[in-house]
């Protein structure tokens, strides 16, 4: 891996860990839809993140109809860092909210308190991406990821 890829992957991790809100775009029957959602980054960075949503939401129905999505994270406060991909796929996992509770508490404090008893209606989705673009004060970078989340080459 080149030094540029290492720097870009470090920015990817930094920007994913410094935000936790993204705009998720879905499309069904040529009708686009987007919304902001919370996301969780696994302890070890890979080629996916987790999203939570309610089991019976419109978003869930759209994802079940078409799992191919695009996303853009909300800019980071420090350096306007954004991660975006139009090569992403999202699927329901067999994880419960309790399975990702530690990630939630570490990354989105008070989420469990706000969700309250409604947390039991939430499901956990896995958002996988094969490539990303990274924008920030440093400029624009692209990164192609392999199945293990390792950087293969800059695009």
Automatic annotation (TrEMBL):
One Pfam entry name: Putative_PNPOx_2
Domain Pyridoxamine 5'-phosphate oxidase-like: 21-135
SUPFAM superfamilies: FMN-binding split barrel
Gene3D superfamilies documented for this protein: Electron Transport, Fmn-binding Protein, Chain A
Highest taxon, organism lineage: Bacteria
Name used for this protein in its record: Pyridoxamine 5'-phosphate oxidase family protein
Organism listed in the record: Weissella confusa (Lactobacillus confusus)
Lineage, broadest ranks: Bacteria, Bacillati, Bacillota, Bacilli, Lactobacillales
